[in-house]
Amino acid sequence: MPAISFNDSQWQSRGDMELQISADGESAALHSRARQDWWRTPPHSEPESDVDRRTGPTLTRPVTVKRWTAGVWLHVELDERFKQAALFVHAGEPGTVGASWLKLGIEKEGGRENIGCVVTDPFSDWSTSPSPHPMAEHYWLYAQVARVGPDVHCHWALQRGSADGPPAGVPKESELVQAREVRGFALSAAEEPWHVGIMACGPLSEQTRATFAHFQLDEQ
After folding, report:
1. Where is there biased composition of kind Basic and acidic residues (predicted)?
2. In whole angstroms, how far apart are CA 214 and each of 22, 60, 111, 119, 149?
């Protein structure tokens, strides 16, 4: 897939964050502020009823075609519950109340690191699986989302990099694990430009520190 520099002019930042982009544009360090999150529930849901949190900082770019694939390596400090980093997809214009969105990444919950996907259309539906290796041992998560007409396909791979960065290249197709397949995602926004990029946050934390590298986007 074509590589996209984080220095490219089409990137749009939203939310309160500290953002540092490397000189070559290959990596971005995103540090969130206190108690930010993306999560939506209906009335009478438990344990949280009728919430719509859209404060997690994002760096996204518009995609106007209906068939595309995006991927990125990510690494995040997971020392507190609910800290997370993800490849983020927003259907329609960012900031629109009630819009559909999804995040595919890794999060600390239940005392362990979980790789998962939250699909919000209209409410947040969360699927997870335990990460086979901890981020602290220099493992990086590769998150990939593909839009194919009305559907989205979410895959991931976990590979060991180094203290300096992620593994070279991208995972082979045979190394990708399916996290989610969503039929008919965000149909009400099918004709609008979508936005895809990166997000990190921690609803219980003062700050979440994540690094993203080698963002790729193939528009077909």
Report:
1. 34-55
2. 11, 14, 29, 24, 25
CB 35 within 8 A of CB 22: no
- How sure is the predictor about 163, in pLDDT bands with cuts at 50, 70 and 90? confident
User: What CATH number has the domain bearing residue 115?
Assistant: 2.60.120.200
Measured CA to CA, the distance from residue 121 to residue 144 in angstroms comes to 19
Q: What is the DSSP string of 80-109?
A: STT-EEEEEEESSSTT-TT--EEEEEEEEE
Question: Could you give the CA distance from residue 195 to residue 39 in angstroms, rounded to a whole number?
Answer: 18
Please indicate, yes or no, if residue 4 is contained in any of the structural domains.
no
Total domains, the chain: 1
**Cα(60)–Cα(200) distance, rounded to whole angstroms?**
12
In a domain, 66, yes or no: yes
Give the range of the structural domain holding residue 53, as residue numbers without chain letter: 12-219
Give pLDDT tens digits for 73-101. Answer: 999 999 999 999 999 999 999 889 999 99
Tokens 């629109």 correspond to: 96
Within a domain: residue 1? no
Q: Which residue has the tokens 């397949």?
A: 181
pTM over 0.90: yes
Q: What is the mean pLDDT of residues 22-33?
A: 98
Question: In this structure, are residues 153 and 178 in contact, taking their beta carbons and an 8 Å threshold?
Answer: yes
Has residue 3 been placed in a domain?
A: no
List all residues 6 or more positions away from 26 whose beta carbon is below 8 Å from its beta carbon: 3, 5, 6, 213, 214
